[in-house]
Amino acid sequence: MSGRDVYEYAVIRVVPSVERGELVNAGVILYCQPRGYLCARAELDEPRLLALGAPVDLPGVRLALAAYERACGEEAGPLCGEPLGARFRWLTAPRSTVVQTGPVHAGLTGDPAAELEHLLTRLVRPPAAVRTAQIRTART
After folding, report:
1. Closest CA to 11 of 120, 130, 125
2. pLDDT > 50? residue 1
3. Which of 14, 17, 102, 129 has most Cβ atoms within 10 angstroms of its Cβ?
4. pLDDT tens across 40-69, in order?
5. What is the pTM of this model?
6. Do residues 12 and 101 make contact, with C-beta atoms less than 8 angstroms apart?
7. Which residues face 109 on adjacent strands?
8. Per-residue pLDDT for 75 more than 80?
9. Closest alpha carbon to 102 in 8, 17, 31, 12
10. What is the mean pLDDT of residues 69-76?
11. 29 and 88 in contact (C-beta within 8 Å)?
12. SS3 of residue 41 by DSSP
């Protein structure tokens, strides 16, 4: 396959208190229909989540994030027989739960896996300055 194809993605976020509306981006789900690609990756920054001050069930959040990742794989449980597009639509349907996805966005890519990594860095992982400060703090 050559050239660039349309892909869709949504940020997976954790909203510990739906009433307050505060959230932490915790992952990305990316679907590229022309390339038969569907993948979700989660990287929960637990200290960042806990800093919001709302009580949160961390084991439950970890389990929910892992469910997004599993739902995209070969062993997708109840979604296993569904086409990738149907899985993506189901996973990105609006929910008012602690773990939910944001709006669906689109783009063009020649490499969906690399695009997913790029989106994780840009939208989920702390900015480089914050990561550097965290590393310095951990060393002292």
Report:
1. 120
2. no
3. 14
4. 999 999 999 999 988 999 999 999 999 999
5. 0.85
6. yes
7. 5
8. no
9. 12
10. 81
11. yes
12. strand
